[in-house]
Structure formats: C-alpha cells, structure tokens
Amino acid sequence: MVVLSARKSVKDNLVLTCTNSTAKEYILNHSRALLDTIGEAKVIEDSTWFKVVAHGVPQAYFSLDKPQEVAREVEEFNKGLTPIGTPVWLTGQQHWGEKAGASVLLAFPTEEQATRAIRERLWIGATSVFVEPAKDSKKKQDKLPTSTC
Q1: 9 in a domain, yes or no?
Q2: Does 55 lie in the same domain as 18?
Q3: For 49-96, what is each residue's pLDDT tens digit?
Q4: Is residue 149 assigned to a domain?
Q5: Do 54 and 24 fall into the same domain?
Q6: Rounded-to-integer distance, Cα 146 and Cα 4, Å
Q7: Which residues pair with 18 in a beta bridge?
Q8: What are the φ and ψ backbone dihedral angles of 28, each rounded to 5 degrees?
Q9: Number of CB atoms found within 10 A of residue 118's CB
Q10: Domain count of the chain?
Q11: pTM of the predicted protein model
C-alpha cells in the first residue's frame, strides 16, 4: 500500500499521507499521472513551515478575501523575508472593522526568517506590527511512521 490516507485540508487541499518515504517518492515521481487524473492542481512536497501571528495589521489596506496581499506586502517591505503559503486571517468577518488592526497567521520557510519577524516586527500596511510565534495546534499523530506528500 502506498497511500495510508487521503483527506481534504481546511483550505480544501487534497493531502495524501504515504506509508513511508519510498511511497512518497513514488507518488512524487508519478505526479504527472496523478495531475492528469485530478485536473488542475500542483504537487508540493511536505516541508516544515515556521508560523507566526502578526497583530495590528491595518484593515484599511487589506480585504478578507485577498489574504495573499499581506504576503506580498511582507515580502516587499521586509527585506529578506519570504512568506510561503496563503496567509490566514485570524480576525473573522464578524469582527472585521471593529478595531483598526487585525491578526493574520503567516508562514516562513526557515526558522531564521520567523525568528527575525518576531524579533524585528513586520512592516505591513505602512505600520510596524507586533509578531509572536503561532501556537501549535497539531493533534497527536498515530504511531505509524508516515510521510506526507
């Protein structure tokens, strides 16, 4: 068996959990056939992301339906920082506009970048915003050795 489980993520991505690294490599090497079956998609190999939460992001500059604008802003005005993935607004629509600042979850490819964002703050929407490490919400994993691809 190559795939241990297939599930949809919160963002509606298909996540395949493989039984071992050999199975993961098989899936990655044959991803073209998988993509032909699924349709429009891209395959991203599992990697560790270092997540932070930025507080006080000015809502006047951004909209809830375009969180990727925050990532572009971080990359443009914070030299050497390259957010990955799509930022997630932690301030929901029901509270949008109640305060001038919102909170957003960002991910970085290295621990160094995340630490720098925390230490130096981030410039987002012409404002220096407070950044803290994201709290880990991982559920306990099964004891089976797995690789996610």
Answers
A1: yes
A2: no
A3: 899 999 999 988 998 889 999 999 999 999 999 999 889 999 888 888
A4: no
A5: no
A6: 8
A7: 3, 147
A8: -65, -40
A9: 17
A10: 2
A11: 0.69
Rounded CA-CA distance 49/28 in Å is 20
Confidence of residue 139 (pLDDT cuts 50, 70, 90): very low
Buried b (16+ CB within 10 A) or exposed e, 104-114: bbbbbbeeebb
Q: How many CB atoms lie within 10 A of CB 148?
A: 13
SS3 62: coil
Contact 87, 66 (CB under 8 A): no
In this predicted model, what pLDDT tens digit does every residue of 94-130 receive, in sequence order?
888 788 899 999 999 999 999 999 999 999 999 999 9
Give the mean pLDDT of the chain: 83
Q: What angle do CA 67, 68, 71 make, to 5 degrees?
A: 110
Same domain, 63 and 119: yes
> How deeply is 54 buried, as exposed, middle or buried, from its count of CB atoms within 10 A (0-12, 13-18, 19+)?
buried
Same domain, 98 and 125: yes
Domain carrying residue 89 = 50-133
